[in-house]
Amino acid sequence: MKKTSLIPYYRSFFRNNTKDFILGMIATVSESACAVAIAWLTQQLMDACTKNTDALSFLWLLTISFVLLLVYLGSIQLDRFATSRCITKAMAQYKSFLFSRISKKSIAAFRQENTATYISAVANDTQSIQMGFCDLFNGLNSLLRLICAICLMLWYSSAMTLAALFLSALFFLLSLPFSKKLVDAEKELSYCNEGLTARFKDFLSGFPVVKSFQAEEEMGILFSEAVGRSANADKKRRMANLMFFFTIDGGIAVARICILLVGVYFTFTGQGVSAGMVIAFVELLNHVMAPMQELPICIADFKSANALIRKTADNLEKNIRDEGRDIPLSLETGVKLENLSFAYEQGKSVLHNISHTFKSGRRYALVGASGSGKSTLLHLLMGASKYEGNIFFDNEELQGISSSSLYSFASLISQNVFLFDATILDNITMFRDFPQEETERALRLSGLSRLISKKGADFLCGENGCNLSGGEKQRISIARCLLRKSSLLLVDEATSSLDAKTAAQVSQALLDLSGVTEIVVTHSLDPQLLRQYDEVIALKAGSLVEAGTFDELMAKKGYFYSLYTVTQ
User: What are the phi and psi torsion angles at 51 (to 5°)?
Assistant: First the structure.
């Protein structure tokens, strides 16, 4: 299977961020060169103290010291400023990119996935990814110091340099297996944190169910198990980290002592190594050893970050509905079904060869026993899944229509209305600006004018509308659709959880709408309401068995008549 390209994900870090990135890189190069130059300056100062004839004059050393320190401190300040800005902006852009990719998914794709995957990607994984991005600068700094230090060390003593490189390379190679274990442990921890987030999210979402069934203890056990898995994964990561640093730190200590012994030997045997060179070599040794410690960490962090980006990208790019062409944002002739069939599982069909035409501007009621396929039909009309047969919107087949076009003229009102923890007005407008007269029209037609006059448009709805009644929430969902001027309104059991009086009010509000094609799934067989629909369509076991006005179906005394009789 073709791997998802990570180029757009990495590009999101650098979009409109090039200036700070380049400044950070320039400052890093300057800082690294100055750090190594200080070792050379130390050698010159020490040789001047011992009155070595090769040393520079005191005036030159004073001038160089002043200029070098000025450039070094300026480079450090510029490095911190530019890299901090670059990293902050990069992570903000990456998170925004993830949000944009999630928002491009269709409703159908999103229903098939666990939202905890994305919550974890933004809340947990970005911390490790930020560490990997920081190491772009840290790694460059370490690498430049290493190169500059080796060049100066070779100029001082090739024998001591070869010994230092051999020992450094040896311990670097020994650390690589632990680096891989650290990457694997980081990825495992990410998956465990994702599972923990999912378990906690389930508990919060299902809190009323947990309390009403007194399942606190059982949920506590499940949550504790998830916590335990996350803790064990974190323990593995810490142990891998411990072994990685033990190898590096131990290797550095051994290498430093060995190199110092070699330097002392060369000094005692008079092999052209001055006291200043020995001290400078000790300083340069730190610039060789430190990168040997830091580079494997940078590599490990970058691999971990890349693995997490890969994991998120793979999740984001799957279940994407193929985009089709844009069509006009209104429904002129209507919706036509031709031999529509659908099955959630192969061999278990839910809808069977349904053919029917829903004319524009008319109102239709879908009725039938539970499991007859009413809700499934509505979700297919919203592009929820692939199907057999055809669904035409004004002679345009649904699977060839872009999601943006579909959602522009079709709206779905479901039984469970989601409201944001924001004002009533923001929940109606979905945080967009509309002309006042259009907003007032939507409030009036949806029956919200009284609520607004009583509580005000700035009244906070609370988390998922906890400060409002079920009827008020349903009216807000109707107002949303009216404000968007949806030409096709699909209503899925919108009143089933409301009391009889509120349900009747909401149902009548929907019927009073004009200029909208309505397909309403209803469990209520109230004659007063059903007579107002242009057509009542009866489904039985996934098949369309009858269609006509309420009085026509009652006169036929067929399936709808039996269904109506049983419910009275």
Answer: 60, 40
